[in-house]
Amino acid sequence: MYIILVYDIGEKRVAKMLKLCRQYLNWIQNSVFEGEISSVKLQELKGKAKGIMEDQDSLIIFRSGQQKWLKKDILGVERQSIDTFL
To answer: pTM higher than 0.85, yes or no?
Structure first.
């Protein structure tokens, strides 16, 4: 599945969440990630994220079957292209 993950995490935990999410997804903007992920890996990511989060934190995951079903418009500078070159 293809997901977009966004989070709003307390300042003291941001670095931990960033490091965790970068292990599974592509970092595209501050607190925003996207990429292909299996159901098993997604559950693993969610479990580890819950271990970092506190009551006032939030994490939102938008799911799509495939990237081709997601239309994305970018204005300004794209932080990191997720195109794959072989």
So the answer is: no
Q: Which residues contact 80 (CB under 8 A, 6 or more apart)?
A: 26, 27, 28
3-class state of residue 8 by DSSP: strand
Three-class secondary structure of residue 47 per DSSP? helix
Distance CA 84, CA 82 (A): 6
- Read off the pLDDT of residues 64-86 as tens digits, 9 standing for 90 and up: 876 666 666 655 666 666 555 44
Taking Cα atoms as reference points, which of 15, 66, 70, 79 lies closest to residue 7? 15
Show the domains of the chain with their CATH numbers: 2-68 (3.30.70.240)
